[in-house]
Amino acid sequence: MCRWGLSWAATHLQWQELMSAKAIIVSAADEQYFTLVRDLFASIRAHTFKVEFDLAILDVGLSDENRVWLKAHNVRIERAGVDVEFPGRLAWEAHKPGFRALSSKLFMRRYFPGYDVYMWMDADVWVQTPDAINSMLKAAAETKAIYIACELDRSYKTFFEHAGIWQVFRDWYKVNYGEPIAAAMTLKPMLNVGVWAMAKDSPVWEEWIQIHSEALQRLTAATDTSFMAEQLGLNILAYIKKVPHVVMPATFNWMTFHALPMLDKKKGVYVEPLPPYAPISQFHLTRPIKEQVETIACTDGTTVQRPLTYRALKG
Hints:
Elements: H1 2-19, E1 23-29, H2 34-45, E2 54-59, H3 64-72, E3 75-79, H4 89-95, H5 100-104, H6 108-111, E4 117-121, E5 125-127, H7 131-142, E6 146-150, H8 158-161, H9 164-177, H10 179-185, E7 191-199, H11 204-218, H12 229-239, E8 245-248, E9 254-255, E10 262-264, E11 269-271, E12 282-284, E13 294-297, E14 303-306, H13 310-314
Parallel strand pairs: 1-2, 1-4, 2-3, 6-8, 9-12
Antiparallel strand pairs: 4-7, 5-12, 6-7, 10-11, 13-14
Helix pairs in contact: 9-10, 11-12
């Protein structure tokens, strides 16, 4: 009894210490992505969490009206600057106006100093349950690892029915990092950088900044393939350099490009499309058209037609 009491007290004290870690969730957007990032913050505000955190955004082209809304909803705003200079930067930013966010998010500790734990969420992510945020912020406060989900799940039929997806990944590595790296990374499940969490003093920060900066210096054209350099760099660090990383459930960063969810109409929640139909915690709208109307199967055998946005679920 005494041992149990001491164990419980120690665990409770540890939890309280973790709860005191100062955390922040950061995203980035321009005016084009504002409706999506507004959904992200609204979906977060709709829940109660076990951990406390602030919200922030890197401004890569927001309008004055956008910034007014964000400030009114207690979202910190900082304009993204030029964090990594490289020869093709101006051409690339003209081709991809929001490109600056890919580098700036690696410097979020400088934009938003004073936090113990940082969590990144792409603008086209939204939160259905608090599980992912609770788990990832708590875990990141305990270790120096990056906590991140990968683009591989039993429901992602692309990886089981179309072998070409692995060749696509290989080509991305070859263009950005060369043939030897591409060969070494073949058939490695892709860690997706749309959602991740990390302590301020994790060694992954500087390693990631370095590999991404070096890749940018080699780029000569603003292409969609080279746009993946930042994500590929993190994967190289995880698989080849073995930086500390922990793979989280796919439901923490559900890739809608690879699998649509099912809808449990009785509970009003989206679930995995295979038994036991567990709720999906966070959606990443990776389909080419973010707000396109989808045909979504329901657990009762019917279907509904709607976009997969947070607004559509709650509207």
